[in-house]
């Protein structure tokens, strides 16, 4: 049988086209597998959305599961004289604060010298800095130092107690010193050299003594070396801004608690909305959510409903006791007046409701435990994701096997078509030969 190098050459038939059609028909067997893979991928993405919404709800529950939230205090300041912050040791109360003077830094300048960058010392020596109520400090001055070098030596010394700059008074250059700390005790008073002094302190004209802050809190006189006053009011730091009158009110931070409760409700409603989208169905278009009818999401909904409709021990035992109700559509709704009343008048009971006696006994703790179980390695959501991933892997293997089977089938068709092409070609050759012989015979008979 003759060898056919290209299908159809021998027979004149479009065998390659026919083979392509057969291949396309065979590859239709792959379409359902691809569609199932896409379905599983869509489910994994949907489970990811569910995980994110559950984690956000868990975070909101964690915030409510902290007893410190219900003990936090806010600081309200009236007037411009001060600002204030409170820590955990502060106690509720109201205070009148009168700032009489602010704490200031002492300053002192030297006599003038002609230049700032030429040497004014010969030998190395020590510069002694004297303060009103603090120990004196010594600064090493190198030989052949200029005014700029002396300035730099002072600023490089962490214990010098002053900052140094150079001021030009229009005629000469002066070394200007400013105490690094405010208050009378830290005030610079004078300085001296232990060798030949390149200049002296101008105490008559430039000395300005540092002062302590003076204030009055509810009639009690207080002095402070700094403008940041701690301890005048227990657990409160007063930052003095200017002379004048201010009021400070330390009270329970009801806003922080309300924001935490509102975030809890919002996070649950967002979770409920996410689950609604993932299980939706449009009767007109036939479009369905990726998790419509999914057992995992039904389990999540059931567990959520069970925890939120359950109770805890205490004065407040149900969400409805603090103004949070479960609506017919499954979302939560806040009665602002009832919640504000609970926050303003009974934060201890509110803390007991959400926190409980341990991390898991209050409402927030129960929610946190439930979400942890759902998202754990062996939990419902994680298990569903693992199942979808395994399905994709199995479908991938099935796709590969089907693809190999199709390749084998097409290869078999190609071989059979090649054989057919060869047979038809041979038959065409035989037919042509016989026609030639008949024509020759006819011609011979005609001559006879």
Give the SSE layout.
Blueprint (H helix, E strand, L loop, with lengths): L14 H13 L3 H34 L8 E6 L3 E5 L6 E9 L5 E3 L15 E7 L5 E5 L5 H10 L5 E7 L4 E7 L8 E6 L19 E5 L2 E5 L3 E6 L2 E5 L3 E9 L1 H25 L16 H15 L14 E3 L5 E3 L1 H10 L1 H8 L8 H13 L4 H68 L1
Antiparallel strand pairs: 1-14, 2-13, 3-10, 3-14, 4-8, 5-6, 5-9, 7-8, 10-11, 12-13, 15-16
Salient structural properties:
448 residues, alpha+beta, 3 domains, five-stranded antiparallel β-sheet, 44% helix, elongated, disordered N terminus
Strand order of the largest sheet: 1-14-3-10-11
Into which percent range does the helicity of residues fall? 40-55%
DSSP strand content: 15-25%
> Could you describe the largest sheet, including whether it forms a barrel?
5 strands, antiparallel
Instruction: Find the structural class using helix and strand composition.
Output: alpha+beta
In total, the number of strands is 16
Average pLDDT level: 89
Rg over CA atoms: 46 Å
Number of helices: 9
Give the tally of structural domains: 3
Secondary-structure element series? HHEEEEEEHEEEEEEEEHHEEHHHH
Residue windows where pLDDT falls under 50 for at least 5 positions = 1-5
Distance between the termini: 38 Å
- In one word, what is the shape? elongated
GO biological process, one term: bacterial-type flagellum-dependent cell motility
Protein name: Flagellar hook-associated protein 2
Subunit structure: Homopentamer.
Keywords: Bacterial flagellum, Cell projection, Cilium, Coiled coil, Flagellum, Secreted
